[in-house]
Amino acid sequence: VNGDTTATALTAGPTLATAAVTGSAVGSYQITVAGGTSTNYTLTRPYGTLTVTRAALALKADPKSKIYGADNPTLTVSAVGIVNGDTTATALTAGPTLATTAVTGSPVGSYPITLTGGTSANYLLTRQNGTLTVTKAALALKADPKSKIYGGSNPTLTFSAIGLVNGDTTATALTATPTLATAAVTGSPVGSYQITVTGGTSTNYTLTRPYGSLSVTKAPLTLKADPKSKIQGADNPTLTFSAIGLVNGDTTATALTATPTLSTTAVTGSPVGSYPITLTGGTSANYLLTRQNSTLTVTSG
Question: Does residue 87 contact residue 109 with C-beta atoms inside 8 Å?
Answer without folding.
Answer: no
